[in-house]
Amino acid sequence: MLRFLTAGExxxxxxxxxxxxxxxxxxxxxxxxxxxxxxxxxxxxxGPRMRFEVDEVTLLSGIRHGRTLGSPVAIEIRNTEWPKxxxxxxxxxxxxxxxxxTPRPGHADLVGMQKYGFDDARDVLERASARETAxxxxxxxxxxxxxxxxxTTVISHIIQLGDQRAPLDLRPGPGDLEAIDxxxxxCFDTDASVRMVAAIKAxxxxxxxxxxxxxxxxxxxxxGLGSHVHWDRKIDGMLxxxxxxxxxxxxxxxxxxxxxxxxxxxxxxxxxxxxxxDTASGGFVRETARAGGVEGGMTTGSLLVLRAAMKPLATxxxxxxxxxxxxxxxxxxxxxxxxxxxxxxxxxxxxxTMVALVLATESLRKFGGDSVAEMTRNxxxxxxxxxxxxxxxTGE
Length: 396
Ligand code: EPS
Hints:
single chain; alpha+beta; 12 helices
């Protein structure tokens, strides 16, 4: 089993992530992790911090000469902004020079202050901030490397930004990630991306923000991850939980989840055909991905499709969102001079990360192994016997 834990505040010294349960022998370089972190910084519409904040990675433990040891991997991402925040975010006893008493609607600020008994919104927002996703992406980079050993590739692309949608029939393949990342909004459809950039510019001019939808695709997902036997072992449930935990994500669907609700049963499902040459599915092929590659809480071995909807960021460059000063109880407005207009292209990369972490965890549960070689052997053995129909009487 794979577990990971992040620590760190948005303007603190550093983010740290510990990843436990990786088998030994996985080849890792700090450049691979650095490259994934750079991908999370992509996207037109990010605020100025994306230009001057640098994700400086240090591999602290669990990796020797470019290979995992089977021990916990700890990674540090230093905040280059830290020198400006040493007083405000100091761990030493003292009081802050400025206290934030106007919680922003739509953020963790107010309810976090009420729940934890804080009078300063910064005590909540520093940890609730999406800066934390940098640590997740570092862990996800390791999960992706592990999945690559099983022939699985996880990518994402933006299919909606604000009210601008890309046509869904244009679905990228596993080799298209570079082209997607080169696009300003990580959209695979050039026409749609032009409309998306125009929408971001218009929102920026108004001091407003935009949400959107990312689609995550996992090619070569092993068949049989998750299980139908318990509610908490169903992989669609795990994927939804993992992706829903991303800051500002308010909706998740597998395949055509929401559209299927309005369809008839005769057209909503993926028909099964037999083709012995399709080894990944044991010969039982589904040509469509309406169910998103999951049936009964288990991966079917066909394309995994997940979509994540992000709300427009609640921090605005325009003083319109009404709130209350918790110290005076007087009405006021929420306002910030520096913020992202949209972070949807980056959210796609984080959604990839969360999907990869779930698939890697469940791959380890199914195939196990203390080394990568043992895990791939177990996977190979499972796949080699997939085409055989076991006898119900003998189970052999
Ligand atoms: C964030 C607000 C912005 C973002 C930040 C997340 O930072 P600041 O308030 O310092 O301008 O830039 O995102 C990152 C730094 C990052 O690496 O993603 C927030 O409130 O969530």
